[in-house]
Write a structure and sequence with these properties.
Length: 444
């Protein structure tokens, strides 16, 4: 018997991803993520940092998946926790939830697990940690093997997780894009996905950008877009600041290269940037001689230095969503020794995450930057998520018997269902739209 429990991630976008698959009497947990919206919104009592709050408090403010009922019913059967990639809406809650299933090892690629380890901030991790390279397998029990199939997304070493069972294979590709020219790592392992299609019982996959038509462009295009904008300012002496997602190592690598081509010194400023760069170095996938400054005192020192010789530096900083405490907001508020002036350049190499908080925060920061007559460039970015035609192609490659669109909320799930219907799937027969907390039997 195979059952699926949609613990979290099915009712809103970018929030509390956690799915469990029960194969007879053994359970595999896939992802344990934060509610990113809550993380950005939350301003704790007396300035407490959200990432330091205990389980009960995080549950109360809806920042982590609610696993209470799941823990009661299936908790004793959990054999492994598999984390598909390093974004916090997929791995942020591991530090709070995994210790509740401490007999189960945590499995993921080396980079993902380095990011997970960082979230424990030096505390002992009670679970065993099992790093698996992309495109490799681990036998969890006589009946279950976990395989990490190489996939592309906006953070390195993202995997589609294939759970091998006596009934066939279940694939969890949450999140993914089909990038045939990724700048770090390899393209999706199409050959392996085709092999898996021979007995693919179910696919659980993300619908984040399902409303976009066509194909999501490769990261190679983001590199060209950044080159196109920035090289116009070669030999000019204005300040240059770029902000992007800290977990996007390929993008950070592109920015270092452009900075060097422009004859400027790249510096990374902000805590989460230093954390992700450190994880990439430890996982041996990327390292740089560019300096990174995480703590507030170091940040100010670096920015003071850059302010003196604006034409010699290329600042890559946190704050792409206008988060009030991030470096870019502090610069815009004149709370750092770096002072913006006419003609300085600020590039947002990202999109605005469509939540009311991010939209409001970005509006605030953009207004402040415009008041300073700064040159702003927005959306110099390509998405990390599959568009409509990629979604269709992925279903055609894997041919799952059952399809569970996730990571979207009902509108995106419904749009994904329409795509599946266009190639012969049927809603409520083999397309299943679940909400957080729901369970379903896939095979009796
Ligand atoms: Zn992601």
């Amino acid at each position: 018997m195979i059952e699926l429990w949609a613990v979290g991630g099915y009712s809103e976008c970018g929030s509390k991803n956690m799915t469990a698959i029960k194969v007879d009497n053994e359970v595999i947990i896939l992802d344990m993520g934060y509610n990113v919206g809550r993380i950005v919104e939350y301003e704790g009592e007396e300035g407490e940092e959200l990432t330091k709050l205990p389980y009960e408090k995080m549950l109360k403010i809806d920042a982590i998946p609610n696993d209470t009922q799941f823990h009661k019913e299936w908790g004793d059967m959990v054999k492994a926790i598999v984390i598909g990639h390093a974004h916090i809406d997929h791995c942020g809650a591991v530090r709070l939830l995994a210790p509740r299933y401490k007999k189960a090892p945590i499995i993921g690629t080396p980079f993902t697990l380095e990011v997970v380890k960082n979230t424990f901030e030096g505390k002992k991790i009670p679970n065993k940690i099992i790093p698996l390279n992309p495109s490799s397998k681990y036998k969890v029990s006589d009946n279950i093997t976990i395989e990490l199939v190489n996939m592309t997304h906006s953070t390195p070493q993202t995997s589609a997780v294939a759970i091998h069972t006596p009934y066939g294979k279940i694939v969890y590709a949450n999140d993914f894009k089909l990038d045939d020219h990724p700048l770090i790592g390899r393209k999706p392992d199409y050959k392996r996905l085709k092999e898996i299609s021979k007995d693919c019982i179910a696919l659980i996959s993300d619908t984040t950008r399902v409303e976009l038509s066509g194909h999501t462009p490769s990261e190679m295009l983001a590199r060209e877009m950044l080159n196109d904008v920035l090289m116009r300012y070669l030999h000019r002496d204005m300040g240059i600041i770029v902000t992007t997602f800290s977990s996007h190592i390929a993008r950070l690598s592109t920015l270092i290269n452009i900075a060097k081509k422009m004859g400027r010194k790249p510096i990374f400023v902000g805590r989460s940037l230093t954390n992700y760069l450190q994880a990439a170095k430890r996982a041996h996938i990327f390292s740089t001689d560019a300096e990174a400054f995480g703590y507030k005192r170091d940040v100010n020192k670096a920015l003071r230095m850059a302010n003196k010789d604006k034409d010699k530096y290329f600042i890559i900083c946190t704050g792409n969503q206008g988060e009030p405490n991030a470096v870019l907001s502090r610069i815009a508020n004149d709370e750092t020794p770096y002072h913006l002036s006419n003609d300085d350049i600020v590039i947002f190499s990202c999109t605005v995450i469509p939540t009311p908080t991010s939209e409001a925060n970005r509006k605030i920061i953009e207004t402040k930057l415009l008041e300073k007559n700064v040159r702003i460039f927005k959306d110099i970015h390509v998405s990390g998520h599959a568009s409509r035609e990629d979604q269709k192609e992925f279903l055609q490659i894997l041919k799952p018997k059952h399809y569970f669109p996730t990571h979207g909320g009902i509108e995106k799930q419904a749009a994904a269902a329409k795509i599946a219907e266009s190639i012969g799937y049927k809603l409520n027969e083999n397309i299943h739209i679940l909400q957080d907390g729901q369970k379903m039997v896939i095979i009796e």
